[in-house]
């Protein structure tokens, strides 16, 4: 049985907390970057600016995806969450990773710059780590709670989740904590060796980190926008449930597609008992739909199509999609 997770309310809290934290950190890092002349700290400032912009996009995703279905969009606006989350991934790469690469290459291959006031950098990076930990903890708690609700392991849920907002916040906060450690190492090695190359290398490492996070998030949202099937365990449970219906002789095909977070479109092709009359078939379809909605709360739209299991064209298409299931 599918259960609803905590809903968009906790996702909104997670995103708002991350936005406020990143905005404060971006200002601190920018000031520290100017005072110290550290490329790594300036890259981290750009990282936090990108994260702040990302949270704004995620808030837009949450607000617009909750709009009800209408004539123009009969299946609702759930996929808007995937679109705005995809833009958030682009923002992480365009504003964060590219600036970090620029600062890194400029520092490594340009004229050597003298480090000033490294203590300011250490203090700001330490404060930023504390604030980022608060945001990361909230995101971690939400992912863990939703994973337990769905009966999945933490990493399995994070990989398969159809809510890109909390995944984006968790990954970007994780990247932020790692980025702060890299920046701290860059500033420290610059101070110890007197060479700005270490600072530049730390900036390049931050750029690689952000590019990797952006790629993971972009690939996730691309799959959701294209039209990913529902959780395989849910699909199998629906298949078994339909096979138990007295009026159904055989389940020919089960098609699902995520049309939003916790919203699934279902099309089931069923070979019904040939002895059923038209009226009996209609009432059976209505009853089956109601029973499925009651058992699987994520089902948003349900289409039941009576088909013969022996149809060669239909069987070929099922085999092409899934292979031989016998």
UniProtKB/TrEMBL annotation:
<keyword id="KW-1133">Transmembrane helix</keyword>
<feature type="transmembrane region" description="Helical">
    <location>
        <begin position="196"/>
        <end position="218"/>
    </location>
</feature>
<keyword id="KW-0472">Membrane</keyword>
<dbReference type="InterPro" id="IPR040177">
    <property type="entry name" value="SLC30A9"/>
</dbReference>
<dbReference type="GO" id="GO:0016020">
    <property type="term" value="C:membrane"/>
</dbReference>
<dbReference type="Pfam" id="PF01545">
    <property type="entry name" value="Cation_efflux"/>
</dbReference>
<keyword id="KW-0813">Transport</keyword>
<dbReference type="GO" id="GO:0008324">
    <property type="term" value="F:monoatomic cation transmembrane transporter activity"/>
</dbReference>
<dbReference type="InterPro" id="IPR002524">
    <property type="entry name" value="Cation_efflux"/>
</dbReference>
<feature type="transmembrane region" description="Helical">
    <location>
        <begin position="82"/>
        <end position="102"/>
    </location>
</feature>
<feature type="transmembrane region" description="Helical">
    <location>
        <begin position="12"/>
        <end position="35"/>
    </location>
</feature>
<protein>
    <submittedName>
        <fullName>Cation diffusion facilitator family transporter</fullName>
    </submittedName>
</protein>
<dbReference type="InterPro" id="IPR058533">
    <property type="entry name" value="Cation_efflux_TM"/>
</dbReference>
<dbReference type="InterPro" id="IPR027469">
    <property type="entry name" value="Cation_efflux_TMD_sf"/>
</dbReference>
<feature type="transmembrane region" description="Helical">
    <location>
        <begin position="122"/>
        <end position="140"/>
    </location>
</feature>
<feature type="domain" description="Cation efflux protein transmembrane">
    <location>
        <begin position="15"/>
        <end position="225"/>
    </location>
</feature>
<keyword id="KW-0812">Transmembrane</keyword>
<feature type="transmembrane region" description="Helical">
    <location>
        <begin position="169"/>
        <end position="190"/>
    </location>
</feature>
<dbReference type="GO" id="GO:0006829">
    <property type="term" value="P:zinc ion transport"/>
</dbReference>
<dbReference type="InterPro" id="IPR036837">
    <property type="entry name" value="Cation_efflux_CTD_sf"/>
</dbReference>
